[in-house]
Amino acid sequence: MLARNALVRLSNRKVLQVQGVDAARFLQGIVTNDMKVLTKPQDAMYGAFLTTKGRVLGDCHIVQLENETYLLDYDESVEQELAKHWKRYKIRMKATLEDKTNEFTSVAALPALISGDDFSYLPVGDEVENLLQQNTREPSASTGVVYRDPRGVEFGVRAIIPSNHTLNLPESYQEASLPVYKDRRVLLGAAEGQELHDSIPLEASLELLHGVSFRKGCYVGQELVARTQFKGNVRKRFLPVAFIRSAEQDLVLELSQIPFQRLDAAGLTPLRKFLVTDGATHPFSIEHGTSIVRPDSTKSVASVISAGEGVPVAVAMVRLEHLLPKESGEVPSMQFATADGAYHVVPFQPTWWPAVDIKTGKMVL
């Protein structure tokens, strides 16, 4: 489905309404992003909730529905832990928390990312803007809210709408199952829900996904995030990786000679072709925790966080020292494999990545 437009009803997402004069203040004190960016209905942001030690409990989208009313869209796998977290910090706040999952549903409109003709990477910015214009509505409890996915245009258009409603989309958008959405976000290198549990926000690239503010005031777990950004280095990150069966010798040889680069680079045309043709038709099964090594070593350089279902890609925690150019200018080639040798592994840079400092592994502010 990477080469086709899709509409997915996100049945794994929960919807929480936070309402009241202290709603924004309550969220501001516990979320990694800055609530001040939400100034009017339909404004949306991405963020995460952390433990006091700065580890991720879960992530969410926060959308302003009306004045003093916000909807939180989050994965059901972290529902219990987040509920306990919210209850702990809501004391003496004039805000109500109400589950709205039975009234609202979350949906995602996903424009095609790869051309099925020449396998080029498709710019989707205009398509996303067109979808937003076609679904212009006054945000309310009766109509819901439609918004650009705050993580980046490649993630498409999101909506939290009444369960019996749908989006106004061109005929080319086919309704698809939940695994299609997972394949898309895994290709983009984004983890969600339980996949993020206990991770360090910057290693999970949450700040690159516009989910962390370094300019807001204090919030729960901020100390570790700030210390890492301003005083430390990020030595490993969540990245998308592709798996190619070792038996595909010609393709393996071609892709093993290229440097780490963005998925839209001309040099990765063979990979994009593989992902929408042979890669989308062959059985693929990679488990969480699968170790990725260099062929000449048994030492792990990466481990799988979450794998796609219809496309041979995964989000993996990768040590950046094996990908980024050395100070001498030497550029490492992508010679990686699963520990059992069954697959050649190609890490690639998401197209939404901003400038990242080679020496520190951190976003250039």
From TrEMBL:
UniProt xrefs under Pfam families: GCV_T
GO biological process: iron-sulfur cluster assembly
Gene3D superfamilies: Probable tRNA modification gtpase trme, domain 1 (3.30.1360.120)
Cellular compartments per GO CC: mitochondrial matrix
InterPro entries according to UniProt: GCVT_N, TrmE/GcvT-like, YgfZ/GCV_T_CS, YgfZ/GcvT
Domain of life assignment: Eukaryota
Keyword tags: Mitochondrion, Transit peptide
Endpoints of the signal sequence: none
Start and end residues of each GCVT N-terminal domain: 10-107
Localization, UniProt: Mitochondrion
Matching SUPFAM superfamilies: Folate-binding domain (SSF103025)
Main location: mitochondrion
NCBIfam families (UniProt xref): ygfZ_signature
Listed name of the protein: GCVT N-terminal domain-containing protein
Phylogenetic placement of the source organism: Eukaryota, Sar, Stramenopiles, Oomycota, Peronosporomycetes
